[in-house]
Amino acid sequence: MHKRNGTPSVAYDNDLAFLGDAPVLYHCHHFNLFLDQSVDDALGPKVGPALRFAAAREASYQLLASLVRAADAVTPAERVALAEHVFASMGHGRLRIDAPQGVGKAVGEHLHYGQAWFEKYGATVRRRSPADAFAAGFAAAAVDLAYDLPPLSSAATEERCVAMRAPRCEFTIRRGEPEEARPRVDRAAVAATSADGWIPAGLHEDAIASIAATLRAFLAGVESDDSGLIRAFGVYVTMHLAGYYNRITYDTITRVQATAPKMTEVLEMLFRESGHVCVFNTFGGILMSPEWEGAVGTLTGDPAEIVAGGVAIARALGFGRWRIREHVPGERLVIDAPATYESPYYGIRHGEAVRPTCYFLQGAALAIMQLAERVRWSERPALTQAFYNELFRGGLPWRVEQTRCRVRGDDRCAVVVTRS
Amino acid sequence: MSLTDMEKAVEGIAGLRGVFITLMPDCLLFDSWTREDRWHAEDVASYFGDLVRANREGLKAIEAWAADMQVTIESADSLVVLREMEGGLVASMVFERSVPMGMVRLSVKRLLGRLAVSLPAIELEDRPRGERLLDYLERYAPDPHAVRMRVALQTGIPLGELEHPENLSGGQLDEIEESVKFILGLDTLAY
What we know:
The structure holds 2 protein chains of 2 kinds. By secondary structure, chain A is an alpha+beta fold. In chain A, 47% of the residues lie in helices and 18% in strands. Chain A has 2 domains: 11-174, 2-Layer Sandwich (Muramoyl-pentapeptide Carboxypeptidase, domain 2); 193-234 and 262-419, Muramoyl-pentapeptide Carboxypeptidase, domain 2. Chain A is built from 13 helices and 15 strands. In chain A, helix 5 (187-193) crosses helix 11 (343-350). The radius of gyration of chain A is 20 Å and the shape is globular. By secondary structure, chain B is α+β, with helices and mostly antiparallel strands. Chain B has 7 helices and 5 strands. Chain B is elongated. Chain A binds chain B through residues 34, 37-38, 41-42, 44-45, 120-121, 124-128, 260, 262-263, 266-267, 269-270, 273, 277, 385, 389, 392, and chain B through 140-146, 149-150, 152-154, 156, 158-159, 182-186.
């Protein structure tokens, strides 16, 4: 691990990514917005954002604590500056934090969630509540660390938000009661739960590994722009915290199972959709990018090429060592992995599961099949919202089932896509 | 097969890009003719139907509504005229932007005359509130393929029951209406 601009670079174990101690990965705004929205749909407009804030604060605290140690940042000013730098370098926008001893404010410019929401949905619907619970949680964690306050104790409320047509995002920060610590999901814990080695190589393994390495080298050089955003492949990209995604996903599932168990399946469908929309847009954007053409070659549109490309992209983005176990073009796709970015968290925090829990893997595999079979690559279509909506007219011709899951005691996570 | 003899109705109308007949109050496509194969006639008919309804309600609110009102929209490359017809229908006529307004008015008059003769008599039937609510939501919500799942999750009404909105209770419909407002960020719905 080497340092660049005072921030450790990303390290990989089994194609799972880590920044400092924290599991991280790259995700686009389509995924981020849809996942947050599904949490709020399930829990309501008060509990949903509260959970997202708490998850953001917890995951950000873990990340920042390890980076503060690594950078030997001692004073509050150093620590706040480090946090603001990390936030922007991860593509989340510009955040200015001014809360001595845990009381004050933060101001956000070009925050990923608010800005992306407004650009994607602002012309269609009116937002009634702020969008940046992640930034609020990050700011609160930064303040906890900067002033050596009890971990996970500061609170932050977004008072104004660009998604609600404000000129910038503004947060108030105040002291609060510390949240009880949960079992850590760090690099060592993830490694302990996702050891590799007993799953045979999949199809096109050499090509996939080579493409993934090339893409990873490219990603290492990708930096946010002056606004603290990463615009690439037709989407806003973030380096994000797996702990945030996983906590909001599985805490929401747990609450729904307890309060409205019949709705669990619907929630799972929406979580799957967040993976589907992500892969369609981001993977599709990468496959059609000049960078792909330069590094891998011109797409022929062969379904095998698209599937292998999709799996390589997943590895490069830090989703885990996905493999193609079977692929019959037009008929069937099986993808498996010794661990996903979802399974270690679930195992550590929730233990064994009755149902498979890798929702992103499920939606992603479905979308890879869609990309392979329903996009005419030779025509280089624009992957627009209209095109995306069109895929669903008349129903999807594919369905996905997760047949194996580490947290159910299986040796791997595996999903199967077949015709509906 | 066209319900109306649209080919005959549009014959000789210069600069016409499309005609959409919307059945009100549900904003359903009744018939259409278009030169543009990229347009989705169902969507166009629904949106313009909603527009006419909103226009009507707005004019009523300022006590300026009249049965023969007409909406004209000038966009960069099209000139659109929306006009209520007898029998609960709305005609939406899309012209090339280069056609002079006077010519458009003449063409609209001629076209409406032809359509009035060729359109069959329609018996209007109120659609169930649940159907209208969900149709409205699917027209305006982002990610329309996912909105029923969102409504199910927000209301606790199973997806299977949402597939038959005509059977939903009044209480369930009230919950759905709140959910639709939440999703669209609206205080009131005109569906």
